[in-house]
Amino acid sequence: MTHQPQLTGTDRDDILSLPWGIPLEEWPASVLVALPQGISRHTVRFAQVGDDVVAVKETTSEMATREFDLLRQLRKRGVPAVKGIAVVTDRRDSSGDDLPSALITKHLRFSMPYRAVFSKTLRPDTATRFVDAMAVLLARLHLSGFYWGDVSLSNVLFRRDAGSFAAYLVDAETGELINGELSSGQRANDLEIARVNIAGELLDLLAGARLDPSIDPVTLAAKFVTSYESLWAELTEWQTMDSTETWKIAERVERLNALGFDLGEISLSTDLPGNAVKVRPKVVDAGHHTRRLIRLTGIDAEENQARRLLNALDEYSARSRKDDQWDEGRAAHEWLVSEFEPTIDSIPEDLRGKLDAPQVFHEVLEHKWYLARQRERDVPLAEAAAAYFSDILRHRRDEEVLVSPPTTTISLPVITDWRDLV
Ligand SMILES: Nc1ncnc2c1ncn2[C@@H]1O[C@H](COP(=O)(O)OP(=O)(O)OP(=O)(O)O)[C@@H](O)[C@H]1O
Ligand SMILES: [Mg+2]
Question: What is the separation of C-alpha 104 from the centre of its chain, rounded to a whole number of angstroms?
Fold first, then answer.
């Protein structure tokens, strides 16, 4: 009987059907899925298991277990990170020699490593959105007590989020979850590591002529630091004001909501001279709009996509209000079945791997607006969608599968459930 490796963290024994007796470097193309990936020290490959695509990383059993636990805890705390599925240990090859252990994570669909995003065509304003997304990720990690220790573009995955990007942590290996708050020294350390790594990674792209020459790597890396710092101040700083100026609190809450953060209680300190008070909001969670959209429609979208879809929903609701029974829940249901779902269902089969559903809907809305301006009349949603599919989406790069495998053509399962994106 062939040797069975140990599987921990899951009861999915279909994972054991992967060729664990062979070094990952030598896995046959028949089990692999060719997807874009970042640079890494360890061997990482994507494989098909049942309906899932998983990322397999060879490493030591200690590291795999440690990273698996960290990823699980981060997801529990609501931080955007890849999802740990299992750890495989006790692998042997056919001669009985030991093979490295492996960490298995769920492949983050429609995600792109930075090398796939930073291309020649990248405009500087897109680059800024990109580092802003990374600053939001680092602030969220720090708020949840995570010291990363290896902040770099290679350790982040990006997904389109309406006109911006959403960043996900992919490599938690060097990280540490702290009980309580991170010290300012720990945060400063992460920032310095980020600054140096981002500048280095961008310089590397520049050297390979893969970066728009108008982007200065060092300036962009410094922009990351200021972007993080202003966000961190908005999230955590005590604000002193006169007790008659408490409307300033509402303003700050609005600004933070707009950035996607939800707030709990506001701490207030009054032991100051005169009428002065000191306030600080407690951030309970990010994903303000994402959560509202899920609650109303079940659509799981990134923050800016959710904001966009909610605007469309609110507009629909105002347009279609029928009677006194009309409420948010009913409007959401009608919008979903009469606008969102028909649009998504009408995506031609062969274009479904290009973008995720909320992003397609966002882009259809953009195109509808564009056509209306061009034709100087309102354009129905279905007409705008059809024009968008044939004139824009068809010519877009496929983001789900970017790289063709060397020998065979591997197609991913058609996305039937767009809710299961992560
Ligand atoms: N779950 C996943 N979904 C999508 N891509 C993934 C996933 N896991 C890994 N990758 C890809 O594989 C690359 C390498 O993974 P990772 O950073 O964990 O390896 P590493 O060897 O630990 O890296 P480092 O050299 O920074 O230590 C990532 O940059 C990413 O592009
Ligand atoms: Mg890495």
Answer: 18
**365-416 confidence digits (pLDDT tens):** 999 999 999 999 999 999 999 999 999 999 887 665 443 333 333 333 322 2
Q: Give 257-292 pLDDT, tens digit per residue.
A: 888 888 877 788 877 888 888 888 887 778 889 989
Q: Which structure tokens are listed for 382?
A: 């279905």
In angstroms, what is the span from residue 293 Cα to ligand 1's centroid?
A: 30
Distance CA(135)–CA(141), nearest Å, equals: 10
- Residue 244 Cα distances to 119, 152, 266, 275, 283, angstroms: 51, 44, 16, 8, 24
Do 402 and 35 touch, CB atoms closer than 8 A?
yes
Residue 178, token pair as written in the block: 């702290």
Q: How far apart are CA 355 and CA 343, in angstroms?
A: 14
Neighbours of 277 (CB within 10 A): 19
Structural domains in the chain plus CATH codes: 6-106 (3.30.200), 114-236 (1.10.510.10), 239-286 (no CATH), 327-395 (no CATH)
Residue 273, pLDDT score: 81
Q: Note the pLDDT of residue 264.
A: 79
Atom of ligand 1 nearest to the CA of 43: 21
Instruction: Check whether 325 has a pLDDT greater than 80.
Output: no
Q: Whose CA is nearest to atom 29 of ligand 1?
A: 38
Identify the residue with better confidence: 306 or 407.
Answer: 306
Closest-CA residue to 56 (of 74, 77, 76, 82) = 82
CA distance 147 to 56: 24
Q: 276 CA distance to ligand 1 centroid (A)?
A: 49
Compute the mean pLDDT over every residue in the chain, rounded to the nearest whole number: 87
Query: Is-contact 221 195, C-beta < 8 A?
Result: yes
What is the band of 247 on the pLDDT scale with cuts at 50, 70, 90? confident
Question: What is the pTM (predicted TM-score) of this model?
Answer: 0.85
- What lies within 8 Å, CB to CB, of 215 at 6+ separation is 122, 124, 127, 202, 206
225 touches 195 (CB < 8 A): yes
Name the nearest CA neighbour of 168 among 147, 140, 192, 194.
140
Q: List CB contacts of 415: < 8 A, sequence separation 6 or more.
A: 109, 352, 353, 356, 357, 400
Kindly list the protein residues whose Cβ atom lies closer than 6 A to any atom of ligand 1.
37-38, 40-42, 44, 55, 57, 82, 105-108, 111, 113, 150, 154-155, 157, 170-171, 173
